[in-house]
């Protein structure tokens, strides 16, 4: 016969005398009364939470659970934001909802009225770029072979361009062996090496501050002569010099750059920065071969630039010291055909300068030909060459076609 269940009053005594016996009558450690109560959702949540914490391991320390869930920490109030300038809207400027057959699709059109309140001032020097005038064309004059009259041609071409009412600056960029100032017969105290940063902390001078007035009303940036360090510039120094050339181009209408002969790094760096390169060649076979070498070595680099030449082609030919137009045409056809066949590059001829004994005479007198013998055949060719160059780089309009005389204009009835 089954004994009767223990009474409620005996439960504490039995528990105290037999602590090893645990049953459903055992009190929950969280209850405050002696009578057991059915588990509540809060108790179940607490047990589940304890089981989860035990399964996670002892590394996670948590506060003992209670009958009431802990209240979440108060959410901090958001920090006050800076006031945003708002526009003044009129009733007509409020959004208007256009009728639509689909209620879930709403089309709003908003018209903002002009701002009447003062616009907040902004630091323009830090947010908006400063306005700079556009850079004028950079025209490099180079040759593969030395002794083809490149510097004499550059000096006299600068004078011929100045006669067209253009502001011209000539940069003698024959690094290490510059002599344009000698050809002009003028002294130069500060030269191109002052525009190069030779040691950290030194500030190079702008090219415009190095330019001096030259005979013929153009400006000359004298090159460095007899300085071996100018022939061995580092890539960063050459890049800084190219940027200085672009800054110089904002101070005049055209910049002529007289480079050294050959294919040194100082020469090719300037050619990469130029908008157009004039390759000087003479009828001599060595000059033709070296001119083609310049096109072959530098042409692929110029054609691979992100921005193509703004004048259509990166190179143009100058036929110098030719007997006549026929010899210049033969020279130009030979170089252009070879370049088209092997390089896929067209090389148009800009013009010619005929051989003239007045040219070496002017060099020995240290006077420009355009000022010494303006009526010489070579001087006339240089005048025509300057006009062709100005039209090719779009700084001088094309000459208007001549109108044939008519009877009405002859009688003064029309203009």
Topology:
Layout: H1 11-17, H2 41-56, E1 96-98, E2 107-109, H3 124-127, E3 138-142, H4 150-162, E4 168-173, H5 180-184, H6 207-210, E5 212-214, E6 218-221, H7 235-248, E7 254-259, H8 265-273, E8 276-281, H9 285-303, E9 315-322, H10 325-342, E10 349-354, H11 358-364, H12 369-372, H13 377-392, H14 407-410
Parallel strand pairs: 3-7, 3-8, 4-6, 4-7, 8-9, 9-10
Antiparallel strand pairs: 1-2, 5-6
Helix pairs in contact: 4-13, 7-8, 9-10
Could you characterize the architecture of this molecule?
It is a single chain. This protein has 415 residues and is α/β, with parallel strands linked by helices. Helix content is 34%, strand content 12%. The protein is built from 14 helices and ten strands. The chain has helices spanning 11-17, 41-56, 124-127, 150-162, 180-184, 207-210, 235-248, 265-273, 285-303, 325-342, 358-364, 369-372, 377-392, 407-410; strands at residues 96-98, 107-109, 138-142, 168-173, 212-214, 218-221, 254-259, 276-281, 315-322, 349-354. The chain has an eight-stranded mixed sheet with strand order 5-6-4-7-3-8-9-10, sandwiched between helices. The chain has a two-stranded antiparallel sheet with strand order 1-2. Helix 4 packs across helix 13 (377-392) and helix 9 crosses helix 10. The longest helix has 19 residues, at 285-303. The chain is globular and about 115 Å long. The relative contact order is 0.11. Mean pLDDT is 77; it is low at 6-34, 59-67 and 84-131.
């Amino acid at each position: 016969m089954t004994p009767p269940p223990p009474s409620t009053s005996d439960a504490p005594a039995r528990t105290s005398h037999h602590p090893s016996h645990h049953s459903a009558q055992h009190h929950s450690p969280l209850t405050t009364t002696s009578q057991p109560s059915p588990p509540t959702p809060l108790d179940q949540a607490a047990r589940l939470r304890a089981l989860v914490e035990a399964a996670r391991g002892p590394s996670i320390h948590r506060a003992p659970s209670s009958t009431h869930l802990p209240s979440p920490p108060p959410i901090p109030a958001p920090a006050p934001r800076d006031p945003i300038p708002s526009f003044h809207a009129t009733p007509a400027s409020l959004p208007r909802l256009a009728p639509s057959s689909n209620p879930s699709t709403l089309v709003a059109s908003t018209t903002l009225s002009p701002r009447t309140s003062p616009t907040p001032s902004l630091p323009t020097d830090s947010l908006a770029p400063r306005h700079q005038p556009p850079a004028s064309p950079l025209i490099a004059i180079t040759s593969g072979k030395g002794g083809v009259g490149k510097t004499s041609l550059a000096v006299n071409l600068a004078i011929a361009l100045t006669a067209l009412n253009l502001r011209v600056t000539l940069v003698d960029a024959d690094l290490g062996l510059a002599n344009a100032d000698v050809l002009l017969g003028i002294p130069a105290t500060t030269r191109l090496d002052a525009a190069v940063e030779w040691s950290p902390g030194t500030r190079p001078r702008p090219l415009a501050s190095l330019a001096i007035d030259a005979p013929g009303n153009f400006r000359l940036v004298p090159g460095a002569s007899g300085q071996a360090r100018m022939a061995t510039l580092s890539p960063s120094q050459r890049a800084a010099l190219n940027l200085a050339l672009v800054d110089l181009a904002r101070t005049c209408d055209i910049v002529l750059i007289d480079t050294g002969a050959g294919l040194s790094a100082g020469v090719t760096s300037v050619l990469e920065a130029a908008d157009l390169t004039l390759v000087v060649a003479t009828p001599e076979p060595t000059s033709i071969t070296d001119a083609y070498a310049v096109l072959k070595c530098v042409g692929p680099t110029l054609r691979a630039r992100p921005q193509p030449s703004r004048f259509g082609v990166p190179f143009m030919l100058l036929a110098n010291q030719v007997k006549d137009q026929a010899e210049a045409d033969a020279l130009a056809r030979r170089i252009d055909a070879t370049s088209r066949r092997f390089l896929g590059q067209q090389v148009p001829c800009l013009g010619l300068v005929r051989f003239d004994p007045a040219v070496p005479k002017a060099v020995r007198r240290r006077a420009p030909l355009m000022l010494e013998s303006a009526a010489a055949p070579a001087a006339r060719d240089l005048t025509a060459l300057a006009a062709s160059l100005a039209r090719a780089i779009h700084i001088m309009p094309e000459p208007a076609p001549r109108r044939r005389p008519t009877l009405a204009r002859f009688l003064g009835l029309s203009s």
